[in-house]
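Researcher: Here's my situation. A collaborator sent me these components and asked whether they could plausibly form a single complex. I don't have experimental data yet, so a predicted model of the whole assembly would be a useful starting point for our discussion.
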Amino acid sequence: MNKVININFQGRILPIEEMAYETLKQYIESLRIYFANEEGRDEIINDIECRIAELCEDRLKKGTVCIAVGDIDLIIASIGRPADFEAQDGFEASGSQSQQSTTQNTNNQSYSNFDTTGQKPKRLFRDEQNKVLGGVCSGIANYFGVEPLLIRVLWFFLIGVNILGYLILWIAVPSSSVKEVGGVRKRLFRDLDNKIIGGVAGGLSKYFGIQVWIIRILFLIPFIRFMVNFKHMHLLQFWDAPDFPNLFDITFSPGAVFVYIVLWLVLPEAKTSADKLEMVGEKVDLNSIKNTIQNDMEGFSKRAQSWGSDLYNRNKGANESNHEGTASTINNDATYRSSEKRKGFLYYIGRIITLCIKGFVYFILAIVGISLLAALFGIGAAATALLPLRKFLLEDGAQTWSVIGAILLFIWVPIIGIVTAIIRKIAGLKKANVWVRSSFWALWVVGWVMLFYFGSSLGNSFSRHNVPAEQSIALTNPKLDFLEITAAPKMKYYENHWFQIEPFQGFSDEDTVFVRNLRIRIVQSLNDSFQVKIVKLSNGKTVQNANELARKINFEITQQDSLLYLDKGIGINKIDKFRNQHIIMTIAVPIGKRIKITNKGWSQTNVNINGRGMRMGTIDRISSDENWYDEWNEPWDNESYQFEKGVEYKMTKSGLEKIKRADDFDSNDSSDELGGDNPTELQKELKELKEQRLQLQKELDKPAKKTANIELGEAKSLNKVKKAASRLTDLHWVLDRFSY
Amino acid sequence: MDIQNTQSQMRKGVLEFCILSIIQQGEVYPSDIVEKMKLANLHILEGTLYPLLTRLKNAGLLNYRWVESISGPPRKYFVMTEEGKAAFGVLLQTWNEMATAVDQLTSPRTNITEPTTEVVS
């Protein structure tokens, strides 16, 4: 049952089925787009419309009641679709009809993947016949000539990556049963008529039927963000660091430049008018996407069911044949069937085995490929992100340029090349032309050259050592019996690794970064006073250069009673650069005295006590140049005594010994959570707590300024006071015990 | 070498000449042109014919006339202008020269596989 409407078409009244009318309308629209740039296009369209009307009337005269879809299809076929015009470009001699018939009947064949004539490049289509969801998997399977099941399994394994990819392919890949009205199908092109750089944004906007400026803004967002956020005004840093690790997050924003370049290389230009037509194609707006998905989902459960029952039947068939094979309860009719089935069973077994092997191989290959690409991408991104720090390491001029070149050419060029090649392969486009490919290779080779140059020149910069000189640090009262070594306060500093370059945040002085190249050695002192000595070491291009750099190392050591404050790192500025400046600090502890290295602030600094502080026996160990470097380079951790930070040690004749905690003397004592180690410490803590309590009480007495938080604040302070008080009593108790 | 491309180039080259030679015989309706060409074993889509006619008309080689039809609105018939006739003369001469030349070059061999020679017939 079809609705018939009457239309006035070029002066003729035509009864036409509604569906046919829609088809006709779309066909004429497609012509309009096709002839858009033609001079006198209205006239052409008009003429064609006249002709269509005439042909329709002919049909009506022959006795047809109304124009049906079939009639319209015939008429359209005789006049031709835009795709045919382009393919035919002229007319055909029937002599070569057999050869040409493929193009003539494009409407039937253009979407078949089984085009074995080889005349047309293979293209990726979604397979509507064998689909489960959107037909993407079976389309890919078709394309590579493998089982769809294989692709589905692979797809399932990589599901995290692929949901987005599936959606994109679903939308972008034409379906094999695209209703081909006027040969309209949609493909992504670069729109050269509307281009600013490469026409990518133009093509995208045509494809999605939205304004071109929307796409442009989407591409520009990272730049806008980048411009607004001055912290990220680094050369070549396209994304914010936190965004980066998520590789799947390359939407329009973070990797826009990357996406743009890839699209630029991958997408063909819309050269012919047929291309331009395809570029606009059927409207892909939200509605049509929704429709596609809805339609597909409706059929989904059915298909899934049939797929499932199909599998079930296969299995059942296989089992049955197995069963029947062993038991000989077969009648004549069943003999035939079982032999059929047995063949089927073996067939399926064989097939499953091949599939498994194939699947495994493909899986491994895919994993290897993806991880290689990801690793390359990671290195590239990390290197790019570290570029702003180059001034602290690299000399200006050739070295800097070679590293930038190496990053761009050695890492990013192959990434873009590989990604492009993959997409081209998948999209069935032919390979990029020889020039593009060879220039890619050439750029990569240049990248290698730059990498080597960079490596050797950087190596050269580090090639020499300074002449080490030991330097004594005078202590104000070296005879004290306890030394605590701690990091200088009020320094904001990132701490993650033993060796680390970090921008020095929180300070206005951004010309300095800090490296934490410090090792502490503890040895036994020969006399009864503490001694501290440091050796500054550095590499450089020449020995003089290295000496100079070592001399410039500014490492503050300040003493305050028994506290020794050390800088947390060695400052590196942009002029002197990082040349592996490092410091070995030797602390000589007299026998019977105690030492502690706090773990606050610089937990990663290497503290080393060779041979429990007994090695060499003395601090005065000026050795030859290279020995200091050996000292630095040898794996201290292996042979060294496991020194715990934040714990007090006592130097004895046989080396350092951990001082046992107070509670260890008396196992009945349960006050170990107080952490008090000795009376002096506890007394200090007591004093501190008293002060704290005073302060808190003062705070409480103060009239609250803000009315809103009074109660809360009061409650908090009260709590604090309570806690402090309880701790005070505890401490008193412990103290009493000690003094006793 | 892309054979198909060459073939289509050849056809494209003579297409306008063929159409002009049909119109030159007298006033004609576009679908009649298609019919006549079909009889000569040449297939052209109306969709390609109309733009070509419009182009030739805009170039001044053709003109059209509205002819009343038995049923429905008048139909557009194409005729050749004087200018068109002159142009056709030039094309014809060129064609004859070309055809002779090609014949001469291909004659020692059997030319069954050469599709363009069929156009001459």
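Model: Some features of this prediction you could bring to your collaborator: Chain A has a mean pLDDT of 66. Residues 332-386 of chain A form the longest helix (55 residues).
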